Amino acid sequence: QVLLQSLSESNLTEENFGLYLAVRIHMKWGWLSTLSSPSIDSLSLALKARSALSQFVTHSKANPSSAEKQKRLRTFPVEWECFRQVFMRLVRARGARVEFWERRLSVVLARPELARERYAMKLEDHLLAGDPER
Q1: Cα separation of 71 and 75, whole Å?
Q2: pTM of the complete model
Q3: CA distance readout (Å), 73 to 17, 32, 57
Q4: Which of 73, 3, 60, 63 is nearest to 26 (CA)?
């Protein structure tokens, strides 16, 4: 908001300011990597994208509880599809190449399958050992 107000006071618009942003997403699913959005030339669109994607982002550096990890594993297929839809709306709003970003999300999803399995096995080992908070 402060930047938009400063631009307005200087008789500049977001378009002629030449600012390009990307929303960096630290996914809440521990087995997935960080992802950045397509470049965005509008601060207001970047803020809207950040807000829309916030439900899929980890907001803490702390290790989630076992219950939270179990929930994330169990709900992943549905949440991933929701994430994909929100992300692709952003891609379309930006006018970015839809096919490129569909492939990119497919790679992000496929690459860590082994890591997801390890994540689930490690969680199960901790639960079986009676250590529920790891």
Answers
A1: 6
A2: 0.70
A3: 43, 12, 15
A4: 60
Q: Which helix (H) or strand (E) holds 35?
A: strand 35-36
Average per-residue pLDDT in the chain? Answer: 79
State whether the Cα torsion 118-68-78-26 is positive or negative: negative
How far from the centroid of its chain's Cα atoms is residue 130's Cα?
32
Are the C-beta atoms of residues 20 and 39 closer than 8 Å to each other?
A: yes
pLDDT at 34 over 90: no
B/e letters for 18-51, b = 16+ CB within 10 Å, e = fewer, are eeebebebebbbbbbeebebbebebbebbbebbe
Task: Provide the residue count of the chain.
Answer: 134
Per-residue b/e over 85-112, b at no fewer than 16 CB within 10 Å?
eebeebbeebebeeeebeebbeebeeeb
Q: What share of the chain is helix, strand, coil (3-state, %, to 5)?
A: 65, 5, 30
